[in-house]
User: Fold this.
Amino acid sequence: MRIEAADVVVVGGGAAGLSAALAALETFATDGRNAARVALVSKVYPMRSHTVAAEGGAAGVVPWGDDSLDAHLADTLASGSGLGDQAAAQWILERAPRELARLDRLGMPWSRDDSGRPAVRRFGGMSNPRTWFAADKTGFHMLHTLFQESLRHTLTTADSRDSAAPSIIRYDEHIALDLLMSDGGGARGIVAYDQQQGHVVAFVAPAVILATGGAARAWGTSTNAGIVTGDGLSMALRAGLALRDIEFVQVHPTCLPATGILITEAARGEGGVLLDRNGDRYLADYGLGPVTPVGQPVPRTMELGPRDRLSQAFWKADRDGRTIPWHDGADGAAGSVGAAGGGETDAASGTSAGARRNVVHLDLRHVGDFLLKTRLPLVTGLARRYVGVDPRFGLIPVCPAAHYTMGGIPTTPQGQVLDGAGQAVPGLYAAGECASTGLHGANRLGSNSLVETLVVGRAAGALAAGDTGSFDGLSASPRYSTTDKALTDQAEALAQPWLAMRGQGSESPAHIRRDLGALLDADVGIYCDADGLARARASIDSLRQRFADVRVADTSSVFNTDWAQALQVGAMLDVAAAVVAAAEGRHESRGAHQRIDHPDADAAPKHSIVVTGQTGVPEVSYV
Amino acid sequence: MSEGTIRVTVTRQEPGQPPRDETYDVPFDERTSVLDALDWIKDTVDATLTFRWSCRSAVCGSCGVMVNGRPVLGCETFVAGYATSGITVGPMSHAAVQRDLAVDTEDFLAKLRSAFPWMLPEPAALAVEGSAGDGGAVDLAALVSTQTLEQLEAFRTLAQCIDCMLCYAACPVLAEVPGFTGPAAIATAQRWNHDSRDGGDEQRFEALADNEEGIWPCIQNGACTRVCPKGVDPAKAIKDLQRLAMGA
Assistant:
């Protein structure tokens, strides 16, 4: 086992992790701590992180329009359906424009308006245009802007580690295994595995920032990349920490069938409309009207309604026979739905899985060449390549797919992690999709999450670096010590069971992953009910038993992706169990959580809090 | 309707071992990508097969491989076109193999970094906000730059690089001059040089022109531009810098 000491450990190299690392450096520089080092630990090279796939944009009120912070806040809280936290949302949203401006200074290629200022576009659920964008590759450009800026401050093995400025040291392709906690319940680092060198690494530091993303890859039909497997959420549960409102998973209404590839809401913001099998604007019949003129989108109406409402409308249109069947490829062909190796399936090839193979049409034909080229080049290319449709002339088949994890590790708006009882966990921060700050509530507005990664990431980085003094837990904690034997023993003990999985077991991890995806698609989708959730719980229990005997055939110590995938399946099972437990006990419909058997919202909104009980079973409370 | 199976030969290599070819018959249809085929092999035949992937939509840049000798992204290359010939999938050329299809990325990142791919001079930091109460009104107009459509267009295409390294695999020069800074890094240098907000041209020019492994090894064969999955034109970026250096 290798031991690496750092002043801050950041887990995850997406927009939240990079923002946190850069903010920590600034704070160290201000404090004159030039020897300070940020360890940036990521299971992929940072520029591969899933931020890269965000398309539409990032919301921040601009002063050169009719918009206001109050309006942004009101839209956000309305979408959050009673579970948004007003103070947290205000704290984050009022800082959004400044963070977007900061990115401009770092070189973000924002699309521009006629006066050359960053342009803003309409987005679903937003009452005014306030979404900053870089064509339809906003996340890609944001990630590369932050990553390239981080290179300025990164030490490599060729550099002297005695650099005269606070610096980042990157640990790429290191898989985080578990949090290291002190006896007093504070974070003291993490234990990880270096896939390139093939050994365990204990990162010891006075502060840890989790920026590990969501878990929506667990669903079979998902917009999320293969790496979005809830690793950090699972680590938090294992460390005895809580997940808040984890049952709220956003289903994006417009994705390509079979692949789940996202077709950004910006396509509708730029004027795209949704059509049923008869070519009718079906959204008007499901409470999203009145019908708006084609090509003249109206805020919060029809195609620009909130995402949860649009996904619900799809479900109802499908039930009413208004969708269009989609041929999703040859049975058993590599890449087709459910092709992960044939063999046995669980009880999950049910109705919704079939329904997901039906589509509606996204019509962009009237949007015109110029806007398609300048504002929607990515979706234009994706439609051509993955469904063979040229959006200038053809209709793009779209359907809903799991997209975003609204809940997560509870934090303050500054990213300070709170435990299940609401107490600060010393030295532990979380930012981005893995955190539950209170901004999104029961349903996230599109383009609010990218700014959350920036604002909360920066705040967490600054706090972790000990800037404000408002949090005495960190500055009071002893300087890390690499000779802290209790800590290194803890790291060894935590790593051992993970390493022991290699060369063991009989259950195919690919089958477990596929069965999990199918059952979540079937029973934990846009609408659910008690029977379906009970079925999902039983299926997940059985999958977790199978996972206890998961087969890791590859015994290699380096680049063991078979083992890595098994770890990720385990993390997804942990999060899925928490999602289902929290959904089962929530006897109401609110935001992204819609119960057929409990169609109304309770008068008093409550947060769910899930922790792992003694027997490994999720325990839920509502507060 | 299955279209049958396709022969997929994968060039595999364990650390410290010589490469070997293994062949698999993979069921496919018209939407099966090379990445899908690799996944199928890993899930059903050999769990030790090693390759990188993530987004499956050609934006994360993880899944570059050689298919029949040509560098491509596995996720957006479909096997149906090769049904009769079969395909051979190998690790990207001009990079050290780590295991099977996973190749070294450090060398590329060092070259990228040598091109100063960040805003110069370094922008002054905006105040870090770690405490409540400092989020009040800001003069946003004073904090953001303005760029005309033409100024954005001057670097927009060059900014599309996803760091997938296909151009390094394609570049014949890298077989002869492994230290060549290479297409993507130089294109990214020009992305910053052409950005109206940036003033680092001279620093990057020095790094690339006063360096025999900078822009000079390029022979303008154009392979980099042809394989780029994002429409970046590194060959032109390099040619522009060579001309500038020669005072043309």
